[in-house]
Amino acid sequence: MLVNNINPILLKIDPLTIRWYGLFLAIGVLLAILILQSLFKERKYKTELLYDLVVWLVIGGLIGARLGHVFFYNAKFFLANPLEILFINHGGLSSHGMTIGLLVTTLLYRWIKKVKIEQYFDILVIPIPLIATFIRLGNFFNSEIIGKPSTLPWAVWFKRVDPEIILRHPSQIYESLIALTIFIILYVIYKKKIFNLQSSIFNLFLLLYFSTRFLVEFVKERHILFDNALSMGQWLSVPFIILGMWWFLARYIRHVTQNNKNV
Predict the structure, then answer these.
(1) Could you tell me which of 131, 160, 155, 156 has the C-alpha nearest to residue 143?
(2) Is pLDDT above 60 for 62?
(3) What's the pLDDT score for residue 125?
(4) Which helix (H) or strand (E) holds 156?
(5) pTM above 0.85, yes or no
(6) Distance CA 261, CA 203 (A)
(7) Residue 168: strand pairing partners
(8) If exposure means fewest CB atoms within 10 Å of the residue's CB, which of 19, 86, 149, 225 is most exposed?
């Protein structure tokens, strides 16, 4: 039997508290910056732009992730305790909120800085699944976003959540491995130049990440939006899936139309 009884606090030296989640998040962000730096230099883009943009994206992504958790999953509690919104160290970040935050921040950056940032989308999106990989590891160490009860050989007893033995899907590990796989796919596609159209990797990320997120929700303890319906996470994933599918379908239709004209 696999038992998760990990203390979420890695180190505590008053008044400093270092949590596993924070460490994993920092590692993910650092690796993402290093990868982006390499890709920017490879394309001979200005790294000064990258460093400026990264500051914006880190702040915007965290704000979006926090507000997403607040309004998508626990609005009643936070409206009654508004100061708790500021205490991000108490836990509570939303991947959908982070994605929205990143998109809004990018648009604001484009508008304020007058930079045509669309040309960077395919590069900027590549390390995002890698950050998600480490975030989900942090969730596992926090014993949060747990899975449904399971009899599978790799099911885990989250002792800090369930005083009595209940074996559950390690859904955080599922999502971590999936996100890592998506990162590898995007990176290989970019390096091999499999897709040449601008925004193709960006939309592939939307399609892959949120469709797999939709599927993993079936083995998670879910926040149901409507009775006997999809979870909140699944409903929030649907617009991103549709956007990714629409982009590829529109390009396919355009390709077929052009070929027919040339016949």
Answers:
(1) 160
(2) yes
(3) 94
(4) strand 156-158
(5) yes
(6) 27
(7) 149, 156
(8) 86
